[in-house]
User: Which sequence fits this backbone?
């Protein structure tokens, strides 16, 4: 019989960008309508690099949660040159603002990555502290600038990271907990299928990398709403990623990487990296899992495996999805009047994109 409704534990987003100020106020409700908890990325301007800043940021997020909804933002720190081992230790046990991860961005690779190290292998004291405290290292796993100081081809960045950086990191820090964020390539998938381990080495997957390959990104012109890091890859990579979802690994789960940018930065001479998917993220995952005949794996992927990595139980609340076609016709508009266009938007998306699942 065809499945037409689904009830699953409230999803967990292991990777979301909420920004600050008016953008945060506009986009947070999109996330809280779908997810009970989310791991909040720290690449704000300025970056979140102390527990005190994370605590203030957490307050700002909580004040944007619509009344009547519950939402638990799990805070992270940005691995900048100012981050100290002492602050990480403080965050490991902090009662108001426990730190759930430290995020590494390779210098120059993406939005606000100018505060990161060129390579995670250079941040020895910090990584050692993470290994000792048990706080996960959240990796943007791309080599952007190599050891010779040259920029790498952005289509090769993840492959290079998997071939060289990640094995060295695992060898030097055997107890380190690692989450490889937003995996996109066959190489990353094969590495994870071989070495992934629940509670130790996990990976997140976005809806957009499951939905699109670079033919979509270049269909009819360059598609600004699909421009993100890591870049969407070849068809073969996307197929392999979908195939991985069918296997239901306990160490693979949802991290939307929803990354809002104002219209002026997306439709500009220098298109910002970031796909804004929060207004439909859960629905899009359901859409893909339905397409590949893996709806029976959706709940673990969305709601169970993520919390488990962070030492948490699945949500006790549930959400219901129903099979119903819908489109996104409007942008999200901030209280300052700035428009933010989501993926699948009827005009700025690929056109005629129909979502098959809706939150009931
Ligand atoms: O596409 C991306 N956008 N990738 C990232 O790593 C960062 C994000 C953002 O913050 O806009
Ligand atoms: Zn991100």
Assistant:
């Amino acid at each position: 019989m065809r499945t037409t409704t689904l009830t699953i534990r409230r999803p967990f987003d292991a990777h979301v960008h909420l920004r600050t100020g008016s953008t945060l106020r506009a986009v947070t409700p999109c996330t809280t309508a779908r997810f009970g908890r989310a791991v909040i990325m720290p690449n704000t301007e300025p970056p979140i690099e102390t527990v005190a800043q994370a605590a203030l940021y957490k307050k700002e997020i909580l004040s944007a949660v619509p009344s009547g909804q519950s939402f638990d933002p799990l805070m992270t720190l940005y691995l900048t040159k100012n981050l100290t081992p002492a602050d990480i230790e403080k965050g490991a046990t902090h009662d108001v603002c426990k730190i759930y991860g430290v995020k590494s961005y390779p210098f120059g690779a993406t939005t606000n990555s100018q505060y990161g190290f060129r390579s995670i292998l250079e941040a020895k004291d910090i990584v050692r502290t993470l290994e000792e405290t048990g706080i996960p290292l959240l990796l943007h796993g791309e080599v952007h600038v190599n050891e010779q100081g040259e920029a790498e081809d952005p289509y090769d960045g993840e492959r290079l990271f998997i071939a060289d950086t990640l094995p060295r990191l695992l060898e030097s820090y055997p107890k380190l907990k690692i989450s490889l964020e937003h995996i996109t390539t066959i190489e990353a998938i094969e590495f994870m299928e071989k070495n992934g381990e629940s509670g130790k080495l996990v990976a997140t997957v976005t809806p957009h990398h499951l939905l699109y390959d670079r033919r979509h990104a270049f269909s009819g012109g360059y598609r600004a709403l699909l421009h993100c890091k890591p870049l969407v890859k070849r068809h073969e990579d996307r197929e392999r990623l979908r195939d991985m979802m069918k296997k239901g690994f306990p160490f693979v789960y949802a991290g939307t990487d929803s990354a809002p940018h104002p219209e002026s930065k997306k439709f500009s001479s220098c298109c910002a990296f970031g796909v804004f998917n929060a207004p439909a993220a859960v629905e899009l995952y359901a859409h893909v899992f339905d397409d590949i005949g893996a709806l029976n794996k959706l709940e673990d992927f969305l709601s169970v495996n993520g919390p488990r990595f962070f030492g948490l139980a699945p949500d006790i609340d549930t959400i219901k999805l129903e099979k119903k076609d819908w489109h996104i016709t409007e942008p999200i508009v901030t209280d300052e009047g700035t428009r933010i266009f989501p993926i699948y938007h009827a005009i700025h998306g690929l056109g005629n994109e129909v979502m098959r699942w809706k939150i009931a």
